[in-house]
Amino acid sequence: VFWLSRSRFGFGLISIREDEDAAAVMGVNTTLYKVIAFALSGLFTALAGGIHAYWITFIEPESAFEITLNVKMIIMAVFGGPGSVFGPIIGAFAVSTVSGGLATKISSLAGLFFGVVIVVAVVAVLMRRRSAAKKEEEQVSEQPPQNPPSPPPPT
Length: 155
Description:
- By secondary structure, the protein is mainly α.
- The chain is built from eight helices and no strands.
- Helix content is 78%, strand content 0%.
């Protein structure tokens, strides 16, 4: 995954994430890159699902689509920091360790932990977006005003 993020394809995806129109103008085939990214995410998800099914040796809808498992996966990615390679891995280890320890001691405390993590993650994302919007406004306001063209001299 690290190699993929530093390749031409990875830089193309980063440019699409930042500004899709600008990426298209620079020659990135945005549709192709998005389809390949979608296929790669499906590949990694299928691989993880296959390993999970092999590990627990029995699949049923109640266990496969359990809401707590899905929330844990989202929290792991958000906790580690989306958009980086090692962030979700570190987040997965941290959340698994803490939730495992809390679930063995007090089961309701693990639910409280997940709730707090979700609230903190949402607040952090909102604060990050607000600060990015302020930076953008400051950059726009710092640009000098463009002078209108002067009228042509009389003849």
